[in-house]
Amino acid sequence: MNMETTLAPVQRALPDAQIVTEVTHWSEQLFSFRVTRPQSLRFRSGEFVMIGLPGENGKPLLRAYSIASPAWDDTLEFYSIKVPDGPLTSRLQHIRPGDAVILRPKPVGTLVHDALKPGWRLWMLATGTGVAPFASLLRDPETYEKYDRVILMHTCREQVELAYGAALVKGLEDDPLIGEMAAGKLHYYPTTTRENGPRMGRITDTLASGQVFADLGLPGPLTAETDRVMVCGSLDFNRDVKALLEGWGLHEGANSDPAEFVVEKAFVG
Ligand code: A2P
């Protein structure tokens, strides 16, 4: 398919349209997809954009989606839940290559390197589809240039929900450039909470108990001097992780005021 010739007529009919190039279904509830990248779109790994479809009333139906692909990539990847009665995802889950989606090219977000002070370790803490911004950051060479240790903790209820993150990490190891940069630096710590698996437990619990440090052979707990953290999950998860990090003396940062950790809600619906 030649995307350039496909895109022009679609964009005349639907401004901000991009064409779907690839769709992967990871489970009954989860899928990822790639779309063409607007030529003018610049973003920082970890940011999100508004994605959607034309609504029934003619108004676009848009939701915030983290860009899961790195800033250097030609196409844009997104990772989504399928909510049977979700206004957008009940329809979006049926997209196929060649279909059009709306993408507002205004990237924003706080899960960016600029919002953190320099540090020794970077922790990426995600539940569910909250792993998406980290799929971008973990494929960005800057992440390994900035940190000596990068730890991805991803927790889901069931094993099948970990598949996207596991494939991501496998892809990093096999990538000639990133694989070399990540070797010896990247630690992956997937856990489940409701289905038995090799590792179990909530991120808050494995951090607080020290289990994760023991399992990975890393010193704990986190300190404001050495550790930087990016957090992306449900509101409850974000709140509880924030309390834990503040208890260790870390402060929340922002683009305008970098500090030791940043938080963003994983988008659903
Ligand atoms: P649990 O199964 O013990 O509730 P959800 O699908 O509800 O968003 O949860 C996704 C994952 O995040 C689950 O493994 C869940 O664990 C975990 N989780 C939910 N809330 C919290 C929280 N407040 N602190 C830590 N982990 C949480």
Structure, described:
The protein has 269 residues and is α/β, with parallel strands linked by helices. The protein has 2 domains: 3-108, Elongation Factor Tu (Ef-tu), domain 3 (Beta Barrel), CATH 2.40.30.10; 113-263, Nucleotide-binding domain of ferredoxin-NADP reductase (FNR) module (Rossmann fold, 3-Layer(aba) Sandwich). It has helices at 3-13, 89-92, 132-137, 141-146, 163-174, 176-182, 203-209, 211-216, 235-247, and strands spanning 17-25, 30-36, 48-54, 60-66, 75-81, 100-108, 121-127, 149-156, 186-192, 227-233, 261-265. The model has no long low-confidence stretch (mean pLDDT 95). The site of adenosine-2'-5'-diphosphate has 14 residues, from strand 8, helix 7 and helix 9. Adenosine-2'-5'-diphosphate (A2P) binds at residues 127-128, 155-157, 193-194, 202-204, 234, 236-237, 240.
